[in-house]
Amino acid sequence: EIFAHTFSSLTELLLLDLSYNHIGKLGNNAFEGLPNLRHLYLTGNSLRQLGSVASLPSLNTLWLQDNRLNSISADISLVMNSTVVDLSDNRLTNMEDVYVILTQLKHLQFLFFGGNLFKWCTINQGQGMPDNNSLKFLDLHGSSLQPIWEQRTCLDIFDR
């Protein structure tokens, strides 16, 4: 577990790599006091959720691949200004997360979402892909999209 304010004395830190450290939980405000952090690597841990780890206004890239995340919707405030987010090879099952991410992350250009086994897409009535998104690259490799095609939901992701 990463506890609250663990790195708060490192105010000039630009890159933090905590990959492959068997981290199972991020405590509230775990990354508080890192106003200049631009790159955060949490690859290959055992994270199930992000929680309220603090706002990181300068964060440009977030690497969360190969964890155990099953939803990202509630935890999105961590990456509000990011242009690159990697959520590949987690346990995400609802494609609604793509809509939430693109609606809230106005600057996101690269979204890696491959290796998640999507089973459904439960988006709110009338919600669709935001017109003002900046996305240039969407990776959905190995995501078992067949259930999504069969349900005929979330298909507007592929209209652009």
TrEMBL record:
Matching SMART domains: LRR_TYP
UniProt-listed PROSITE patterns: LRR
InterPro entries xref list: Dev_Immune_Receptor (IPR050328), Leu-rich_rpt (IPR001611), Leu-rich_rpt_typical-subtyp (IPR003591), LRR_dom_sf (IPR032675)
Pfam family, one: LRR_8
Gene3D superfamilies noted in UniProt: Ribonuclease Inhibitor
UniProt KW keywords: Leucine-rich repeat, Receptor, Repeat, Signal
PANTHER family according to UniProt: SLIT RELATED LEUCINE-RICH REPEAT NEURONAL PROTEIN, TIR DOMAIN-CONTAINING PROTEIN
Protein name, as recorded: Toll-like receptor 5
